[in-house]
Amino acid sequence: MQAALNACVHLAVRDGYDTVYVEYLRARGGARVLSRLGGRWPLHATGTGQVLLAHAPQPFQEEVLGMPLQKYTRKTVTDPFELRRVLAEVRRTGVAIVDESITQDAVAVAVAIRGPRDRVIAALSVTLDRENWSPGAVLPALTTTARAISRHLGAPSARRMPEAARAAAR
């Protein structure tokens, strides 16, 4: 996926109020990113963080929304009402798209990794140069990879064939 999309790939987990990168693959000539293996960023400011926050317990979400949220660029979402809307959209669509939230000229697209009982246990993202990204090119590879990881971790929903694939098989 990393080479096919020429994208930086991040696998992250939640630790307190942060997203922590437990795996990171840099793309040669890809978007400039400020992340590193073991690096931390606040949940509200990254694609992986927004996925993890959107699926965290409601009291935890409210705790985060009640804190001062740091702005890294003019596009970082720091308004609690706007962030609530963003998190609801992430839950509805299953995808977080974060445009220039930490790094100028970079877009991060993230999805959930699920484990047993379908609980969100991690998030997978790609970060691309803003000029060269296409949701149509990114989402199939990203969701397929996340589904394969989730299936390997025992997520019940990852074992079921998606509706589109069932329809195509008929």
Describe it:
By secondary structure, the chain is of the alpha+beta class. The protein has a single domain, classed as Beta-Lactamase (2-Layer Sandwich). Helices cover 37% and strands 25% of the residues. It has seven helices and six strands. The protein has helices spanning 2-5, 47-54, 58-65, 80-93, 135-152, 156-159, 163-169, and strands at 8-15, 18-25, 40-42, 95-99, 106-114, 120-129. The protein has a six-stranded antiparallel β-sheet with strand order 3-2-1-6-5-4, with helices on both faces. The longest helix is centred in the last third of the chain and has 18 residues, at 135-152. The protein is globular and about 40 Å long. The model is unreliable at 164-170 (pLDDT under 50).
Work out the count of structural domains: 1
According to CATH, the fold-level topology is: Beta-Lactamase
Please state the second-level CATH architecture: 2-Layer Sandwich
CATH class type: Alpha Beta
Q: What is the fourth-level CATH superfamily?
A: GAF domain
Distance between the termini: 28 Å
Strand content: 25-35%
